[in-house]
Amino acid sequence: VQLVESGGDLVQPGGALRLSCVGSENTFENYAMSWARRAPGKGLEWVAGIYRDGGNIAYADSVKGRFTISRDNAKNTLYLQMNNLKPEDTAFYYCAQASVGYDFGMDYWGKGTLVTVSS
């Protein structure tokens, strides 16, 4: 399984970014996907998850109402639209793939992309 994130950048508070994660062909559409993050000096935090068919989507309370997870199975791509970014959103963001279609497990990981929110 290969997962490659992109889209991380430096952005001002209140700004927006869209992260992308491209997964392996022939497997991506079968599995639930998640985004997680690790802020400097802190532990890993699950951010959002989506079932293989998009039928169930869930968010951490810290991002609810500001972030939107989506997927395009035809393009093997997972997205995270991040709006109204705050300095506390600064972190490495990772996409993760479950081993099943309908559970937010995180069994395979990408290498991450850095989001920095600062003025």
Structure description:
The protein has 119 residues and is mainly beta. The protein is 0% helix and 46% strand. It contains no helices and eleven strands. The strands form two sheets. Strands 2, 4, 5, 6, 9, 10 and 11 form a seven-stranded mixed beta sheet that branches. The radius of gyration is 13 Å and the shape is globular. The mean pLDDT is 95.
Distance between the termini: 37 Å
Query: Largest sheet, described in full?
Result: 7 strands, mixed
* Number of beta strands: 11
Order of helices and strands: EEEEEEEEEEE
- Average pLDDT, rounded to a whole number, is 95
Alpha-carbon Rg, integer: 13 Å
Helix and strand content put the structural class at: mainly beta
Q: Which word captures the global form?
A: globular
Outline the low-pLDDT stretches: none
Oligomer: single chain
Individual helix count: 0
Please report which band the strand proportion falls in: under 5%, 5-15%, 15-25%, 25-35%, 35-45% or over 45%.
over 45%
Pick out its properties.
seven-stranded mixed beta sheet; mainly beta; 119 residues; 0% helix
Write the layout of secondary structure elements.
Layout: E1 3-6, E2 10-11, E3 17-23, E4 33-38, E5 44-50, E6 57-59, E7 67-72, E8 77-82, E9 91-97, E10 108-109, E11 113-117
Parallel strand pairs: 2-11
Antiparallel strand pairs: 1-3, 3-8, 4-5, 4-9, 5-6, 7-8, 9-10, 9-11
